[in-house]
Amino acid sequence: MGEIITVKNLTFSYEGSDENALRDISFGVEPGEIVLLMGASGCGKSTLLRRLKGGNAPGDILSGEILFDGRPIGGFDRRELASRIGFVSQNPDDDIVTDRVYHELAFAPESLGMPRDAIRRAVSVTASAFGMEQWFEDRTDTLSGGQKQILSLASVMTLGPDLLILDEPLSMLDPTSARRFLDMLREINTEYGTAIIISEHSTNLICEYVHRIMFMDGGRIVADGDPRECAKAVFDMNHPMAGGFPAAAEIAYRLGERERLPMNVREGKAFVADLCAKKGIEPAGRSAAPGVPTAATSGVPTSAASGPGDSDGEILLSCENVYFRYTRDSRDILRGFTLDIRAGEVISLFGANAGGKSTALRILCGLDTPRDGVVRYLGKRIKKDGWKELYGGALGVLPQNPSLLFTERTLREELLVTASEEDADRLCGLFELTELMESHPDDLSAGQAQSLALAKIIALRPRVLLLDEPTKGMDVTRKAILADVLEGLKNSGVGILLITHDTEFSALCADRCAFMFGGGVVSVAKTGEFMSGGGFYSTAANRMAGGYFPGVLTAGEVAKCLM
In CATH, which superfamily holds the domain spanning 315-542? Predict the structure, then answer.
């Protein structure tokens, strides 16, 4: 059997651009193969994936060849191509076109003229397989970001495609949902033989599911092969994006491993345990013979930050015992929600998809009004219709979809809406967007779009920042830049709330972490305390090495402990 997709010497540039977004790319994907596409934001991953589903804008320039199932992709009937290649984009809002979940699942089969009984069967089987029964009849505009991502995948799977292309599908999923999502992809792959190409920045989970990794840089594929081999090749390059590989691989490579890099927490935990045994380091809390080193005597962190989850900063914005429901007859989404946002602090709010996190943000920023409970800004109770007057421009909000903030034709024009010329140049430099100043916002990668939206908000000099999934689509370099920006804002007295699933990023910048369950906040603690113990909302590094060094949260800290 031949390759399901074959790319030969593909070069591509967008209309009006003097530079090629893709440069002489060649590769093939076998039926039943799962391929992970990695690389920095803006390196061409999304551009490549969009070319694989066929179709270009009239002014785009493409050379080379793309074959699907042995035939030029341009020779396929659009209906046949739509049924055989499933595509899920970075932004699920771009994929969803109907008002109800069940309508969305039925949309593609109906558009292709499938018989009614076949449509009913495909929709019900798919909804059951993806665990959508509880929200099968919900309005699509009330779904959480994670639910929308699951719906986007389920919708294309109603057609049973031969090739599935996914662009950043895990970016808004909580850890448990992400694992279930990947388990579903593996089942689709093994049970139906569907080939899968997936672009993703969050790799601690995904690498154990894929057969191969292709790594892109500057519009080219610079490494391609078995996950361990590809990781080693990128580490050997000393590439800035090497930190995008699983923490287990980074730790092992820093400590001199070259033959077989661990690629998941299980393998990383075994690697750490073996190395600790060789060095005579006992697990934390276990008594050791005289003279035998333990975590407490190795000059490494032995416990997480202690004390309550309180901060000394002034409370800027708070919710107290808030209840909220979207309709009179629906259940409460928020049930006793209570949270403080303090000056000079970053707090991360975690919780399951559809758990009410984004609803809480809507209450905090005044888009919705609680049916009970109190919201205060600087100690003053905010009443209905009084939000604008009280906030006085002191609140900055990043929605899940940053494109909602874009109205202009270039990045420069976007920033000049909220910033002076001098500030626009400074912010572009800060977020590494200077070379894109004359680009259209629609041409940005997901990570670049997040950076632009954040720059536009920060230019307003808000007192409080509410950020919904701010690292969505960001590579490790952009996350590090954002962490530095947030640190500077925090030091200037800004209060920052992150609604996120990104524990690795929160470990870099959050002072406190809160967990939401059952419509309310059930736990608030300092970040080290919250993440120690190796639970679902810890970092991969802590799950691997926390048994020996309870305070470690990053790969760098683990490597330093074991050097």
Answer: P-loop containing nucleotide triphosphate hydrolases (3.40.50.300)
